[in-house]
Amino acid sequence: MKKTQKEMMRFIIFGIIIIILSQVVGFKRSTLTLINTVIVFSICAVGFNILLGYGGQISLGHAAFVGLGAYVSAYMSTVLGLPFLLSLLIGGLIPMIVGILLGLIALRLEGHYLAIATLGFGVTIQQIFKEWVGFTNGYSGMRAKTPEIFGFAFKSRESFMILAIVILVLLCIVAYNLLRFKTGRAFIAMRDSEHAAQAMGISMLKYKLIAFSISAFYAGIAGGLYMHLIKFTQPDQWGIVFSLNLLAMVVIGGLGSIWGSILGATFITLMPEILKELPVIGEIRNVSTIVTGLVMILIIRFLPYGLAYLPKQLKLKRINKRNANETAEVKA
Amino acid sequence: MNILEVKNLSIQFGGLKAVDNLSFNVPKKSIYGLIGPNGAGKTTVFNCISRFYTQDSGEVLFTPNEKTIELNKYKVHQVASLGLVRTFQNVELVKTMTVLENLMIGMHHKTKGGVLAQCLGLNNVLKSEKKNRELVLEVLETLDLQKYAYEIAGAQPYGVQKRIELARALVSHPKLIILDEPAAGMNHTETEELSHLIKKIRDVYDTTILLVEHDMGLVMGVCEKLTVINFGKKIADGTPAQIQQNIAVQEAYLGKEKNDA
Amino acid sequence: MAVFFQNLIAGLETGSLYALAALGLVLIFRTSDVINFAQGDMAMFSTFVAYRLMTGVGVPYFVAVILALIFALLLGYSVERFVLRPAKKANLVGKMIITLGLVMVLSGTATALFGIDTYYMRKAVLLDNIQIGGVTIQPNAIFIILFTLFVMAVFSYLVNRTKMGIAIRATAENETTAQLMGIKVNKVISNSWMIATLMGALAGILIAPVTNVSVTMMAEMHLKSFIAAVVGGFGSFVGPVVGGFLIGVMDNMVGYYISLNWKTTIVYALLIAMLIFKPTGLFGKVHRKKV
Hints:
Number of helices of chain B: 10
Shape of chain C: globular
Strand order of the largest sheet of chain B: 6-7-8-3-9-10
Radius of gyration of chain C: 19 Å
Distance between the termini of chain B: 50 Å
Number of strands of chain C: 2
Strand content of chain B: 15-25%
Number of helices of chain C: 11
CATH superfamily of the largest domain in chain B: P-loop containing nucleotide triphosphate hydrolases
Largest sheet of chain C: 2 strands, antiparallel
Helix content of chain C: over 70%
Radius of gyration of chain B: 19 Å
Oligomer: heterotrimer
Largest interface: A-C, 45 and 43 residues
Order of helices and strands of chain C: HHHHEEHHHHHHH
Strand content of chain C: under 5%
Number of domains of chain B: 2
Structural class of chain B: alpha/beta
CATH architecture of the largest domain in chain B: 3-Layer(aba) Sandwich
Shape of chain B: globular
């Protein structure tokens, strides 16, 4: 029990540190926007990791859920004038319901068929964003107003950061709880040994639905937050490029790791900015896409569980080396 | 009193009849064996009973308590909560998790708390986890596996993994345990230990054991009654002593004797 | 009536190209157990090579096409040899992620090299349209249909009547057994990738007049070829061909008679229906999963 309380404290402390840093250090506005983006995408990545890293279900159209969250929450808060938190919540619930629908289809599909189906799903939803001008305003784009809770308007980047971090920490704790109890175990069993899972009473249908709906909820919340940060969106943002970046976040950061998701989101968001500053490489168009793709391939090849697993892998190497040395000593 | 009644079970794959009109009964609290040469259809029978396959015809009746249940009406993941648990021929543990966590999966259908309760870490969830953890550690002790509790399951030697899988089947105290080739890959000593273990489990946990095996040593030593099948059909029924005398069984395993004269 | 026939021919035209692309996908899948999500981008790259040779260097069309096809062979070989083969032991999801990473590398590199503009590429056959009974027929369309049928016939001959074909089919059935039978499985997989990339490049070059040459030119066709492969079934080489023609005709008919904007969605809905009711495809066999 103590171990789990420590884990939860780690999330809270992390959040507090970020908040303090942002208040104390005089970050530029653009840097603050960047940090806020990292926080929001972390939420998305944590949810996606639950689906892919724990549940082993691949989804190549997840951008659809994020975009859905963005549009729905903006519609609720800005067009209908509902309170911000309620709009955000609905922006999470609607994608969640759609996620259940996707999960119902997923039940029958394995691996690559599921990937293709989710790919088509993403394309279709993006098409709906483009065509349903009455709801999304199409390419003219949709706007959102400043988020407000009980009259306090989160106008500044610093105040938005507090809002975003609190939500991130809460959702991390929720994810952590879900994963350390029977649902987490069921997910891993579903991923690694379907037959054993079923023989032990785990329903594939139920847990695939849970995995899809939860990851869709997180994606929707992230989309809603993002929308109220940038305050503008249009359909091109929610296509295959975003879905692939989301996949990259989780693969590079660490499959099956909440911290890995945050790490991956940081990497994917910050890397283009860093690359832009470099002398020769920064000139190349779309260099960040190339680098992301390369890193993904290298990670699968050399560090299949992602960067978050690196300390464990190094420790294992040290243990193996020590064992080899001991055996050599014994032999000598 | 029979805990399991298989009646006229038939299933075919493509043109091949894997199980052909098979019937047998497993008495409560017995240690029952289903044996036969390689490819006889034994695992297929188990897959039908545990609902991984749906048979083409015939029925399987399960009576864990007072009521008799027609297993065909249930889905594969519902079987465990009825009181019927199986193991797999090729050990199907979750290799990346610890032994303890693997066994907790065995308790899945007895663990309380819905998704929302788990997200919030409510008290009933915490209590259920704690109680199940203790029950699991007890089972580990009974099977002499407690020292592996926090080790990674996939890193253990094969023989230990087979015992872990057995432990996982036990944790929920099922009424009927089906063991699919429990002695596969074991040497003589390990098989002897397994014999003792199976008897101990049946006595301590008050359960019925149905096993599929083609290691004759284990079967003759531990089973009280047997059904022998070949090419999906039953060829004999009886106690180990009776089966050993049965000519049809001998032919099935050893082939017909050639007359040289 | 005339309009219907025109749509039908247009459907067969794009359908034949979907069939070609889908065939390549299925070939790679059956021999190396990988869904090559990068197929579309590899085709796009090869098409750009043809385009640049024609406009930048001034090479005549057919020579440029041949050179681009050679490039495609090399590209397919390199990707298999240097990216996929070292990662052979990765699981299903891992290999998918690798080809998705390739998508990013290829599309990023293409944008860096070729920019984000669209360019015009000529048709293969430049003859004027002919009129038969009120129906306008493009010779290019007929050429495409016949040519792709020819390519698929050659492929079919290769697979069914040559030694290499037997090797391909054996590897597709069971790689380990094929190896035990003395088949150089790595060579088979390498050849499969080269053939598939070649087919993809052909599809790209032939569809370029319609979609124009750009970094995103293959996006829609790529998705449709997936749908074609699923509808036809990944388990055979006939399935994707039939699936391709089916999807092509459906796509055109739906686009004309129902809605141009929603045609991809409607075809996708067919995919979903297929996956729900017959996941193994029209020509797939139903297997009882072994436990």
